[in-house]
Design brief:
This protein has 261 residues and is α/β, with parallel strands linked by helices. Helices cover 26% and strands 12% of the residues. The chain is globular, with a radius of gyration of 17 Å.
Amino acid sequence: MASSNSIPVLLVFLMISAGLSGCFGDDSKELERGIPGGLTLACLSDDKYTSMVVEIDYESGYLPEQTSIDLVKTRLEQVCNKPQGIEILLTETDFGHEGQWSSNDVREKGWNAKLNDPERGSTLYWQAIFPSGQYANDGVLGVAVDASTVAVFGDAVDDAEGPIFNRPSAEEIENSVLVHEFGHLLGLVNLVYESPVEHEDEEHEGHSNNEDSVMYWAIESANIGNIITGQLPDDFDSDDLNDLAGMLSGEIETNNQLWTN
């Protein structure tokens, strides 16, 4: 959770504090299934896994936008070496859950819905769930709970859509939040490594201090709807990309890996 966690077009934020403690799962069951970033090398390298499946399990009425699906595939293809390709698998799912979601709810319901374990044969499986309801911490739009599982809360995304002209749309917010959460599965920022560049926000651990990075701390909170002008970031910045390249090459030490090359 993120309780700790070059502007070509100026982004103006109304800094209204929102609860960010839902960004990462925080209980002991994480240890059984890895922490966010625990399968970073498995994704970046093709030494063990030559293909990848992103399983998107969504509740009825919560199918993510096609732009979000295409975008997360593109972003993963840009950084993960998977010569046999990356596939998106969409499955409508009844999670059997009502009301608010805790990180453990996301983890347990997500794993119950998984069609395959994350590490199976030469294919790596990651999962995003799109459930009904909202996260227990107010204002949290998305959460990464272990090494292979994230959630995006569509109701919270809709609520974050700005009512004023030129505020970001729900679709734009969903695009950024989904990529952001998969960025955490890639270990960004400093979740399983220490960057040689100081680009982690001092007040929001695991997040970028650059408003042009999709890993910027406000992306997964209700603050995202307070952007008055400009376009939401939906891509990793140069520091993020350099961190990923450094982990892949071995120049940056990577910790807490479920699999290492």
